[in-house]
Batch of 4 targets.
Target 1
Amino acid sequence: MNEDELISKKELLEWTGISYGQLYRWKRKNLIPEDWFIRKSSYTGQETFFPREKILQRIDRIKNMKDGLSLDELADVFSPSSDDISLGAQKLVERNIVTQTTLHLYEEVQGSQETLAFSDMVCLFVLEKLLQSGEMTQGEGKMLIHLLKEHEEHFASRPCEVVLFRKMGVTSFVLAESMEHIYFDKGVKWVVRMSVTACIEELKMSLNEREE
Amino acid sequence: MTASNNENVKFSDMKIMGNGSSAGGTFNLVKIMGDAEINGSITCNAFKCMGNTQVRGMVSTGGFNCTGEIQITEGMRSESAKLNGNLRVLGELSAKLITINGELSVGQRMTAEKVKVNGTLSVAADCQCEDMTIRGSLEVDGMLNVEHLQLKMHGSSKAREVGGSKLHVSRGFSVPILNKLITSMEGTFQAGSIEGDELYLEYTIAKIVRGRHVTLGPGCEIGLVEYAEEFKYDPSASVSQVNQIIV
C-alpha cells in the first residue's frame, strides 16, 4: 500500500474532528474493522495508520447516520454477515432495489422463490449493479449467479470483491478476499471490479431506509 | 457423583460433590462442590462451583458463579461471571458483566461490558470493555480499549496501548511510611501509549499520552504529551515534550 493512501491517527482526528473516545467506541462496536488499524513504527515509537479513502468515507457515513440509528444498529449496517432479513422477491422490485429483468434472469437460474434470504438478495443486488454498468451480458450474469451462490458463505463473513475479466472473448469471474496482488498475463482485460462488501452495505442502507 | 445428559429440550442438572469427573455436554445447572475434572466442553444455563475445577474445553453459560480455582483450557462465554478466587481462561473470554475478587487471567482476547476487579486482571491479548473498575493490578499485553477506566493501583500495572474516553489511573491507599521507603516498587502504571478524551494519570510511565484534557498527577514520567484543550501537571511529574494540538 502506498504511503499517501494511509492517514495517521492524529491526522484523522484533526481532519474529521472526532475524539479519541469516539474512535475507540466505534472500534469496540465494530463500526471500524480491526484490520484497518495498521501499526507502523515511527520516530515516536508506534503509530497507527488507516487506509485513507476507506476510513474517511466510513467516518463520514457514521457521522451522518448516527442521529437516526443506535451504534448497534449502525454496526449491523457495516457488518457483512447476513442477518435474519428476508423479503419477498416482488417486494425488492417494488422497492426499486432490483429490476424485473434482473429478477427474471435470477429466477431462470435459481428457480422462483417466494421469499429471498439475505444472501440471495446480495446476489441479486450485485447482479443488478453489474448488469446496469453495461459491462456484463445476461449470459455472463448467469455465471455470476452460480459463482456467488456457490461461495455465499465467504462474502457473508469476510470482505470480498468480484472481478470480471475477459481474454480473447472468453469471460471469467473471480471472487476474492483480496485483489491487492494479482497479476495476469498480457491478453487478460479487467472489465469490472466490484466490492461485494460495499454492495452489502448499500443494500442494507436501502432496506433500512424504506422500512421507516 | 451424578452426571446425566439427555437430548431433550429440557436439560438436566449436573452435580458433583466431592471428587468427580464428567465428559461435558449440555445441562441446565452445573454445580460442583469439591474437585472436578471435566473432559469436554460445557454448555449450561448456570455454572456454580465451590472448589477446584478443570475444564478441558469451552464453557458457555448464562451465569457463572465460582469460589475457588478454575481453569478452562479453551474459551469462555457467559452473561455474567462472578468469581472469588482464581480463574484462568486459556482462550477467549466474553461476558457482559464480570465481577472478580481474586485473580483472572485470560490467554487470548477479552470482551466485556462491565468489569469490576478487586485483585489482578491479566489479559495476554487485546481487551475491550465499556466500563472497567480495578482495585489492584492490571496487565494487558495488547490494546486496552475501554470507554471508562478507573484503575486504583496496588502493585504494578501495565498495558501496551490504552485507548478510551475517560481514563483515571491513581494509586490505591496504602501504608504511608512503607510507601516512602520503596517508592519504585509500589504501584506504577507502564504503558506504551495512552489516548483518550479526559485523562487523569498518577505514577504513570508512558512514551506517549494524547488527549483533550490531560492531567498528570504525582510520579508521572511521560515522553510526549499531546493535548487539545487543557494540560495540568503536578510539579513532581516529569515530561520531556509537550505539544498542543489545535483542532
Target 2
Amino acid sequence: MTVIGGGLVGSAIAWGLARFGVQPLVLDGADLDLRASRANFALVWVQGKGLHAPHYAMWSRKSAEAWPILADALSDDTGLDVGLLQQGAFTFALSDEELDNARADMETIAKETAGGAPAFEVLDGAQTRQRLPHVGTDVVGAIYCAADGHVNALRLFHALHMAMTKRGAAYRPRHAVRTIQPVADGFVLKGDDFSILSHRIVLAAGLDNERLAPMVGLACPLKRSKGQILVTEKCKPFLSCLTATIRQADEGGIMIGDSEETDTSAIAASSEISAVLASRAIRVFPALADLNVVRSWTGFRVKTADGVPIYERSERYPGAFIAACHSGVTLAANHALVVAPQIAASRLDATLSAFSAGRFNVEQTS
Amino acid sequence: MLNRLRDLRDPVHFSFDGVPMQAERGDTLAVALLAAGVNHVRRTGISGAARGPYCLMGVCFECLVTVDGVQNRQACLIEVDDEMDVLSQQGAPSLPMPVDDGEGSKQ
C-alpha cells in the first residue's frame, strides 16, 4: 500500500495503517511544495463546523472526543507529548452582526444535528468580560464551546512521522507523484526519477489531490483558500483561554490568524491582511499591542468546494482511496483510528458515504 | 571575548545589571556589551539557558535585553546611549496587564 502525501492527513493514515498491520510506503513532496500541514493554526476545533452538513459536525465531534486516545497512543509510540489541551474556546464578535451570524450558525447546526453537536453558550459583552477580564470593550459578545482545544501542531507532525516510521512505514521525501496509471494488478506511480507499482493507494496529497484524483476515477474539487498567521515574541502565559483566532502556544508565542483570501495564489504574506489581523487581535485583547510580531506566514487550506472533507474509495479502481480535508489537526484522530483501519481492510464504511465527492455532481473520468 | 582594536575616542556610559560600562558612541548595544566582556545577556523562556548576541543583524533574537524598563529589546538593533539602563532579560516577558487567573474560562 502506498500513501501519496506525508502531511498530517497522510501520516495519520499511514500510522493508522501500520498499527493495523499494513506497512505503507509514504511518498511525499519537497520542502517548497504547498504544505498546509506546516502552516496551520493547530486547533482541535468543532465549534461552528458542519453548517448544513450535520454528518461533518458529528464527524468533527467524534474526532475531538477521540483526540485524547490519539495523544496517548502517539506518546506510547514516540515518548512525545503533543501538548493537547481541550478546555473550551471562545469566538469573539466585534459587532452585533458578527454575534448574530455566529449565534444563528450555531443554532442551525444544533438543529440540523438534532442536538448532537457539542453544546455552546452565547455570551454578551458583559458576560464575556466577566469570564475574561482582559477582553477589550470592542467585543460585543462571544460564543463559548467547551469541546474545543488545541495542540502543538509541529510536535504532532513530528510525532506522527516518528510513530509511522517506528511501526514500519517507509517515508520517501522529494517523491512527488506526477502521474498515476491504473494497471491490472494495481497502480504505477511515476515521479521525476521513480516508477513504483503499488497494489493499493491512498491519495492524501492535499492540494495535489485535485490533480491526482481523476487519474484513478475519483474527484476532489477544491477552492482556493489562503490563510495568514502572525506570531508574536514569546511571553509569559497570558491567554488562559483559547479563541478561534488568537492562541498562545505552549512555549509562549501568541499566534493570530484565521484570515481567508479566495482570490489569490500568491505565496507571499500581505501586509494589508497582517494589519487587519493585528488590529482585530488588539481590539479583542488590548494588551497585545505591546508585543512584537516576529514572524508571519501564509498557507493554502485544502478546502473542498463545500468545506466538507472527502473520503472515498474509487468505484472504477477499488484499490484507490482518497482523503482530503481542511482540518488535518482536528480530524487526525479519526484518520488514524477510524479511516485507516477501514482502508487496511480494503473498504470504507457506509457511514462515510456522505463524504463521497459524488455530492458535487462532477464527472468522474480518468 | 571581543577586544577593541582602538581605544575609546568618544565614550558612552551605560549600565548592565547595575554594573557601569563604557562603549564607543555609535556602537550597537549588542557590540557594546560584547566588547565590555558580557557574553550572555539573557536566559531563555523555555529552558532557562544562558544566551548572548549571535547574528548581530536582527534575525536571531538571541540578544534580547530590557532597556530602560522595556523588555525583550534586540540589543543588536539599538544604538547604545548615555545613561542607558540595561538589564539582562530573564525568561519570557510578561504583558503589562492583570494576568487572567485561569478561572475565566471555567464554568
Target 3
Amino acid sequence: MNLNRRNFIKTSTAAAAGTMILPPFLQSYQNIQNSTDVNNYMDHFEVTTELMQKVISEAMSKGGNYADLFFEHKISNSLGLEDGKVNKAYSNVDYGVGIRVLKGDQTGYAYSETIDATSMLNAARMAANIANNPKQFSLNTVNVKAPADYYKISQKWENVSVKDKVPFVQKINDKVFELDKKVIKAKAFLWDETSYVLFYNSEGTLSYDYRPLVSFGAVCTMQRGDQIENTFSGRSYRKGFEWLSNDLVNTLAKDVVDKTNILFDATKPKAGEMPVVLGAGSSGILLHEAIGHTFEADFNRKKTSIFSDKMGKKVAENFINIIDDGTLENNRGAINIDDEGNEVKKTYLVKDGVLNSYIHDRISAQHYNVEPTGSGRRESFRYIPLPRMRSTYMEAGPHTREEIFENVDYGIYVDNFTNGQVKIGAGDFTFFVKSGYLIEKGKLTQPIKDINIIGNGPRALADISMAADDYLADNGLWTCGKDGQSIPVTMGLPTVLIKKLTVGGTNV
Amino acid sequence: MTKEEKYSLAKWAVNHALKNGAQNAKVNIYDSQNSSVKVRAEKIDKLEQSTQSGLSISLYVDKKYSAHSTNRLNNKNELKRFIENAIEGTKFLAEDEFRTLPEPHLYFKGNEKDLSTFDNGFLSLNPQEKVNAVFNIEKEVLGKDDRIISVTASYYDGMSSSVMVTSNGFEGDRANTYYSLNASVSVKGDDARPESYWTESAIFNDQLKKEGIGEIALKRALKKIGQTKIESDKMTMIVENRLASRSLSPLISALNGSAIQQKNSFLVDELGNKIGSDKLTLIDDPFIISGRGSRLFDGEGLALKKRTIFEKGVLKSYYIDTYYGKKLKMDPTSGSTTNLVMTPGKRTMEEMIATLDRGILITGFNGGNTNGTTGDYSYGIDGFLIEKGKIVKPVSEMNITGNMKQLWMNLTEVGNDVYKNSSWRMPSLMFKDIDFSGI
C-alpha cells in the first residue's frame, strides 16, 4: 500500500497497545522460559518436525530454492497512568506462522494465524506460487542451532501480576509532581512484551528464541506563566521485572523534569548551515539516519542507495569506526538469533574510515556472496524479513569533549531528539531536535528547541571532523520503521563535531 | 467468518464478560484479507497473501477500565479464560469515574444509507489480472531513459469487515475494500540517486486508474536531478495537493480531546477564535459516497454528523470522544476524523506558480515534527525554486520552521485541485513568509 521509502525512527511517547494479564492459554503450556530444549518450543506451537517438513515440502513444490517457517507467539501488556492514577491497561496476543519461499531474490509469502496442518499447507501453497517449475522436494534433516544468550532475565513478565507492576507506574508520577511545582500534568506507562519464536527452514536448520522486552517512562507537562511545555523520557531493555526499581523511577522522573525545564527559556537559532556538536548518547540517531539505512543491503543490491558504489572506499576520517551490533547484553536491539535463523554478529559498517560492510539479510548476503550479518529482522510473523539495524553506534574517538567545543566559534550543541528520517537515494537525512544549546566562542549559551536538522549522508559522514573519548549508549524507546514494519533498535555515539549541517530556524 | 458469525461471537463475548464481573463491555470482531504483488527487473519480486481475524474487548469493571485483543479465536474455552483473566486483572487498577460507554441515545441506529465503501467483486478478482496490471506499469518506464537505475511497481488490495456490539445497546457492522497501484523510480543524478513515486487508489477495482502511473513517477524522479540547497530566506511556499494533509495534520492533532484535556495542544480554549486566514474552511463529512473516510458511526458507535471544523479561519469544533468529553465537561463530537474536505479556491497550482515572483514549491517532506503543546514546527523539505512565475531548479536538503498558528494565518490562497485519493481531500496551498533554511 505504501511505496514511500521514507525510513524513519521515532521514540514512543504513548504506550502502544499491549497488556497486563497473563494470557490464560499460556498456562496450559510448559514453562519454557530460557529453555534450551527446542522440543519445548515445538510443543508450545503444537507442531512436530514431520509436520514442519511436510509444510516445507509443499512450500518448495513449485520449484522454489529455499523456504522457511517462522512461528511466533507474542504477548504484550501495558499499564497507563493519566491524571494521577494508574487507570488503564491494554493487552494483546498475537499468534501465527509466516511461510516464505525464495526463488533467487524473488519472495513468496503467506501467513496463517492458525497453526494446524490444513491452514499451514494452504499458506505454503500460496507462498509456493512465486515459482512455477514444479518439482519434488523432500526434507528429513534437522540441525538444531542453539541461539546465543544475550538477554538473561530472572523474573519473566508472564509471572508478574498487574498488582506488582502498578506501584512503579504510580511512583514515577508522584515523583515527577514532587520534583517541581510547575508540573501540571504527567503521564506514565509500563509496557512489557514476551515473544516465543520457533524457526525451521528447507536447509534443516531448527532454532528458537525467547524475547522479553520492557519499556518504562513518563511524559511531563509544566507551566510557567502562560507558557506550557512538555517532554518525554523513557528506557527500554530486554530485561525482566527485576529491572524495575525505585532508583530507576527517580532517575527517569528527574530526567523528564530536567528536560522539560530547559524548554522554557529555549528559542530558535538562526536558519542556515553551521557546525553541529552532537552530544554523546542519543545523537546516535545521526548514524541511524545518515548511514544506517543507506547501508542496508537491499537498497544497495537494487542500487538505489547513495552508498551503492562505495564499498571498500574511504567515507570518513581514519578514527571513525561505526558498528551495527545485535549482541549487546539485554539491549533493546539485541537478538539471540535473527529472524532467518542466522547467527547474530557485531558488524563493522565503517572501519578506520573505510566502508567495510553492508547490513545483510539472506537474499543480499547471497547476492554479494558474503556471510550473513544476522540482520534479517521482521516485525512479526506477518512480515518478510528485511536487512535491519539492531544497535548502531560509533566507537570512542581520539579527542576530548573540551577540544571539540574549543573548535566551535558559532554553532549548536544538540542532545535530545524525537525522530528522524532519510531518503535513501538522495541521501538526505533529518533529525528533530527537542532541545539543545547555542555554542558561542566554545561555550554553551542560549537553549534552543524544536528544530529540524537536515544533511546529506555521505557529506555528513565525511564532515565528522572530531570524535571524543566519551562514548555513551542510548537506551531510549527507539522504534525503527521501514516498509511498514516497526522493530526495536538502539544507538550510541561519543560527542562528535560535524563541520556543517543545515539547521532549521528563523531568518532575521 | 460471515457477518452473522461475527455478531454471534461478539454477543457471546459481551455476555461472558457481563456474567463474570464486568458491568459493561464493548466487543469488536474483525477480519481482513490482503494481497500484494511487487515487480522489479521484469520479475515478480514479492508475492504476498494473507487473511487475519481478531477480537478486541473493552471492559468496564467496578468503575475500572481495560482493553484487550487476541487473534486466537478458535477455542471458546481459551477465549473464556482470556476474558475472565482480563476482568480479574482490571480489578487491580484505579477507579476512573469518566470511563463509560457512550450514552445510548448518541449511538448510530441502523438505517439503509449505503456509503458504497465495499466492492462485491473483490473475491472474484483474477490473480493474473493483478499481476498483469503491475507489469504494465513497469513497462511504461523501462527503457524510457538512460538514467533509470531501478523501477518497482506494485499492486495492493485489501478487504476488511468488522462488527461491534456493546452491552448498552449498540450493534453495527461495516466493510471496506481498497485497491492501489504504485510505481517507484530511482534515477542517476550527479552523486545522488533521486527517486519518486506515484500512487493511484480506489474503493472499486473498476475505478482504479491503471495507466500512466509509471510515467508520472519517472517524470517526477527526472525533475529532481540536480537538487541543491539554496540560501536561507523568508519566502512564499506552495505545498502540492497530495502533501497538503501533512501541513494540516498538526492542526487536527491539536483539536483532539486528549490533547486539549492534557494541555498538550496549542489550541486549548480557542473554540470560536480565529486560528487561520479567511481561506481556511474545513468540513468533516462522513457521508461522501465512496469517500475513503466515509462511515456512519465511529469507533465508539457514535452516530456521525457532517460538521464544520474551521469556517473562514474560525475554529468551530474539536474532536471529542466520550471519555475526554466527560473530563472536559463537553458533549462528544466523535474523537476522530472521517473525510476532511477543504473548501477549494479558484485557481490551479500552475496558475498560482505563474503569478509568484519568488518562492518554493514543496513536493516532498523529510522528517521533522511539531511541538503539539506550543505549535512550533520544523520540517525537512524538497521541491522547486520558483522565480518570476517559473520553476527554475530543484531544491532539497532544506528546512521550514515556524509556528502552526502563524502558518495558517499566512495561508494566502487555496487551489482548486482537490486531491481525492485520500480521506483528507486537500487542494494545493500557498503560504506567505515562511522561514526556509538552506545554506
Target 4
Amino acid sequence: MDATTQHEGEAIGTPEKLAEIMQAKAEHQGCGTSGGSGKASCGSSAGQGDLPTEIWEKVKNHPCYSEEAHHHYARMHVAVAPACNIQCNYCNRKYDCANESRPGVVSEKLTPEQAAKKVLAVASTIPQMTVLGIAGPGDPLANPEKTFKTFELINRTAPDIKLCLSTNGLALPDHVDTIAGFNVDHVTITINMVDPEVGAKIYPWVFWKHKRYTGYEAAKILTDRQLQGLEMLTERGILCKINSVMIPGINDNHLVEVNRAVKSRGAFLHNIMPLISSPEHGTVFGLNGQRGPTAQELKALQDRCEGEMNMMRHCRQCRADAVGLLGEDRSAEFTTDKIMAMEVNYDLESRQAYQALVEEERVAKVAAKQAELESLAGEQSDIKLLVAVATKGSGLVNEHFGHAKEFQVWELSTGGAKFVGHRRVDLYCQGGYGEEDSLETIIRAINDCHAVFVAKIGGCPKADLIKAGIEPVDQFAHEFIEKSAITWFKDYLAKVKSGEIEHTVRGDAEIRQGALISAA
Amino acid sequence: MALKIVASQCTSCSACEPECPNVAIFEKNGTFVIDPKKCTECIGHFDAPQCAAVCPVDDTCIIDTSYPRYQPPA
C-alpha cells in the first residue's frame, strides 16, 4: 500500500466495503504513468475556478474535460462504430496493433449489446469509471444506428454514466436532436481547419449525400457542416470540445484562426494535439515524411490560443477502445470473451461511495496548493520555467524515475504552477538495471525542463540528468505536485537572487512517436 | 457485371453495407461480400457505385469482370 491509499484510509473510516474499494483503488492508481497501450489525459483548468456551476457539474467528473478530474476519474471507449465517412491523411484504417495507442486504432469491434455489457463489467470493476465515449474507430455518426442503440442500452442499465461522442462533424447537423435526446452532454468535434484550401491538404475526400467529393469542394462541405453542427450543439447547451491535429507546415499557424472560429461559436474547450506520424503506420503523412511538432512548437501554439477559452493539455490521444484513467489502458482486461464470461453485479451504491472518497482526495489536493500559493504572494520575477514530474496519479509525486512511462510537465512562475502537458518516454528501468539508450530518450523528451520531480532515483541516471542540466528532485516523494513544485520554485528564485545559480533558458524537447509497448 | 470486394484489402469497417441501394452487401467470415445477383453497380440509383465511393481502401470495391454488364430494366 502506498501513501495515497493510506491517506484515504484515515480519511474515510472503515465501512464494510472499504477493503474491497481500497483493493480496487490500489489496483487502479492514477493518471499518468501506469497501464498499457492507452494514453491518458487531463483537461481544462484545475478547480471550478470561474466556471458557471452548471458547467462545472458537467465537467468535474469527466476526465477529458477537466484536467484535474482526469487524475481521479476514468473513461472508456467502446468500439461500436467502425465505418467512416471521410478520409484523413493522418489515418490508416488498415492498422491495428494491441501495443499501439492512438485514435482510430482498436483491437476488436463490438455490437451495441456487447458494448453495453462491457460498460457494466468495467463500471463494476473500476468504480471511478464515470464516462462512456464512442470515438470510432470510424466515426460514430457514420454509424448512427449502432451508436444510438449503444447509448439507449446504457441509459437503461447504467443511468449514472455520462455519455459522450467524438465525431468529424460531417454528419453532425443531421443528428443533433437525437444526441440531445439521449442526454449526451459532451461532444468532441475534430476540426483541423476552417479554410478549405488548408483542408484540401488534410482530407483527400469526404462521402456526403451519396457522393464522394475531393479537394477544395470536400473540405468546404466538411468545414461548413462542422461549424453548423457546433452551433447547433451549443444552442442546445451541449458542451463541445474541439480537437485539432497540429500538422507543421500545413495548419500550425492556421489553428489560431480555427481557435477563434470555434470560440465564437461557443466551444468550451480546445485540444490541440501533435500529429502522430510514422512510416510504419502507413498513413499518407507517415509515408510522405510529414513530421509532427516538437514539444516547444506545440506548447507555443497552445499558449497562443489560450485566452478566454480553456485549452486541454492532458490529452493522451487514446485508442477508440481505451479503458481506464487517461494515461493507462486496461482494455486487455475486458476483451469480449472475458466480458461475456463475467458475472456482472452493477452496484450503484459502492460506486457512489468510492466517488465520494475521490472527492475528499481532490479537496485535500486543492487546499494544499492554495496554502502554498499564498506563500508565493509577494514574490516578483519574470522567470518562467518547466519542470517534469513522475507520477502515478492522485496529484502526487509518487513514481520512481525508472518506472515512469510518461512525465507530467508543469510551468512555474510567480503566478503559480500550471499543468501544460505530458511527455511519453520509454521505460528507463527494465529488469532492474537501467539502459543508457532509454535514459537518452527520456532526456530528449524532457530536455526543456529545469528539473524532474521523482519519488526515487538511482545514482547513475541522477548524474546523467545533472550533466544534461536537469536537476533531479527527490525530496518531495509522495507529496502533492503543485505544492512541491511551488516550494522548489521559491527556493530556485531565492538562489537566483542570491547569485548562487544563474537562470538559463532550456532547449526544445521531442514528442515521442510510435507504439507504446504495454509490457512493463 | 457486378462489383466485388477484394477480401484481402477489406478492413471490415462496414461502411459499404448500409450504402448499398440493393441490400447486396453482407458480412461473411470477417469481411464483407457483395451478392453479384443483387448488385446493379448502382445504375439507375446513383452516379457512382456507392460501395466504392465510401470504401476507405482504394481498389477494394472493384468491377467483377466475370459477370455480364448489368442491364437496367427498360
